Amino acid sequence: MIAQFGDADFGKEEIGKDSEGKPVFRYRTPDEIGNCKREFLQQLLQFELKPSIVVETKNGFHFYWLLKRNEPQDLKMFEPIQRAIIKKFNSDPNITNLDRILRLPNYLHLKDLDDPFLIKCIKFDPQLCYIQEKLAITLGCDLSNLKNNENSRRFVVVDNKVKLRNDIVPLNNSIDIYISEPQMPKEFDNLEQVIAFLRQQDLFQILRIPSQPGKAFNCIFHHDEHPSAVIVNDRGQYKYFCNSPNCECHYKKGLDIIDLTSALKSLSFYSTIRYLCEQYNIHLKNADTKWAEEQKAKYISNMELLSYQMFAEKYKSLSRVIRSGARVLLEINQIGLENITYEYFGFEGQNVFFFSNRYLAQRMKL
Ligand SMILES: [Zn+2]
Q: 126 C-alpha vs ligand 1 centroid, how far in Å?
C-alpha cells in the first residue's frame, strides 16, 4: 500500500428525501463549488497530520497520506482508516476500496466535453509519510477488534509489496509440495512457456492427494467435513478448486501449481517461479546480470498483476478498468522481457525497447 486517501466532491448537495426516502440532490453552481472548495481546503490543511498530496479536481479534491514504505502495513487496517477519513472530512462514502482509481494530475476532466477541467496537483510533499497506527489514532479510528484477530487471515506488506498470496494458509504444516527428483534440465524461451509447463504437472502427486480428476476430497485449506475440493485436469492443465464459499481458497478460477506453491511456501509470485524452476531444473534463456535480473523481475511482476487470478477477484474495479487493455499490456511486458538489453542503453536505469503497433498486432494476431 502506498497511501490512505479521500475524495471530496462538492458537485451536488442533498436537499431532502423523496417520498420513498431516497435522497434528492441539487447541482451546485460553479461559484458555490468554489466556496466549498476554499472552506474544505482550509479544514484539510489545518488537520494535525498534513496530507502528503492534494489534487484539485473539477468539483473538489483528492487527498493522500502517503504511508512509510519500510514500516509494516496491514491491509485489514486500510478500510477502517478510509472510513475514519470519510467521517472526519465528510468526503465521498464510497472511497473505501483498495483498488480505487483516482484522477491523474495534468489530465483533463472530460465528463462535460464543453467544460473541460485540468486536474492539478496543488500540494506535493512526498517526504510526508505516516504509519497506519498514527493515522488511525489521530482520526479516532478504533482498531481494537482487528488486533484481537491475529490468528485469522493476515495481509501484510513486506518490502513495499503486498503479499497477496499469503492469505491462504494450509490446515497444518505437514502439507507441502513434493516434486520428484532428479529432473532433467529443460530450457524455455519465455515465462509463458514455463507457466504452461508448470501447469501440466500432476497436482495429485505434487500435493500427495490420493484421489483422481473430478473426484472430491477434503480440502487442505479448510476444515472440510464433506469433501468439497477437486482437482481438475483441463486439457492437460491441472487446477485445484474448493467449492466451499467459506474457504479461503474459494476462487472461481481455481488455483494452479503456482498459486498453491506460493501459498504453501509463503512466496511471492516471482520467488515461486524461481523456486519451481529450480525444482524442475528449468532454465530461462536470457542475460543474467543483476540489472537484467531486476528488469526481468519488473516485467514479470507487472505480468503477475495483470494475469493474477486472485488479483482480478480482489481488485474488481481496477480489473474492470484495465480488462480490455490487459492483453495488450501483457504482450508489451512480454516484448520488454524478450528485449532486455544493457543498462548502458537504458533510461533512468530502466530498460528501453521499441516496437511498432504493427509488430504488436502481428504478435497478438489482431
Ligand atoms: Zn477449502
A: 42
Q: Is the pLDDT of residue 157 over 70?
A: no
For ligand 1, the distance from its centroid to the CA atom of residue 255, given in whole angstroms, is 11
Ligand 1 center–CA 153 separation, angstroms? 14
CB count within 10 Å of CB 120 equals 12
- Distance between CA atoms of residues 319 and 323, nearest Å: 5
113: containing domain: 3-161
Give the domain-ending residue among 131, 161, 191: 161
* pLDDT tens column, 9-46: 999 998 998 998 888 999 999 999 999 999 999 999 99
CA of 215 to the centre of ligand 1 (A): 14
186 and 137 in a common domain:
no
Are 234 and 273 found together in one domain?
yes
Note whether 278 and 313 are same-domain residues.
no
Same-domain check for residues 234 and 104: no
Q: What is the DSSP string of 270-327?
A: HHHHHHHHHHTTEEE-S--SHHHHHHHHHHHHHHHHHH-HHHHHHSHHHHHHHHHHHH
Same domain, 157 and 11: yes
Contacts of 362 (CB under 8 A, 6+ apart): none
> Which of 254, 284, 314 represents a domain boundary (last residue)?
284
- Kind and range of the H or E run holding 80: helix 75-89
Q: Whole-model pTM above 0.70?
A: no
* Cα 80 to ligand 1 centroid, rounded to whole Å: 28
What is the 324 CA–ligand 1 centroid distance (Å)?
A: 31
